[in-house]
Amino acid sequence: MELDDLRNSWTKQPTPALNTEDIRKSMSETSRPVVKKMLNKLLIESIAFSLMGVFYYGAFDGDQKPVLLNLLLITALLLLVSHHLILYILTKNVILKTDLKSNLLASYQRLRTHAMISLCIRMLTAVCILCFFGSVITWNSSKLVKLGMIIVFMIAAIWYDHDLWMRKLKKLKEVIQDLSAGNEKK
User: Which of 73, 75, 111, 129 is the most exposed, fewest CB within 10 Å of its CB?
Assistant: First the structure.
């Protein structure tokens, strides 16, 4: 009986009259917290990596390192920034399908793809940064221990990023399954 009462209450509620401007406002970046957080992350990381890219040659002795390492570092930084930008654009521009389940399935597939690309780019960037800075170091046991700690920290950061992506995907998959289960009961 509770479900019937809920349906009756739902159908009795008046539908709010929204004009096109109200809908645009609700879809703006400032009213969508996930998109706003992504924009902040994009800006902070883009500025940080861009500054690193601009100053690496002088401040980090890029002129003393092999050209290949310089190219790898710049490529990795550009990949990271461009991937953030692409992910932001795709999240901001929602693709509307015919129904909610189709939208969620498309979002799930897109998010899963971007999660894998994001993790691969992060690993590539970490390796390039380690190679770039480690190329001119004379290694001894103390420096190898420090390198080991840095590698453990980078692995932990990438694992944390992986865990965040998996939680987001799991949550979205649960919503899709709940929606599918709700449709089957009707």
Answer: 75
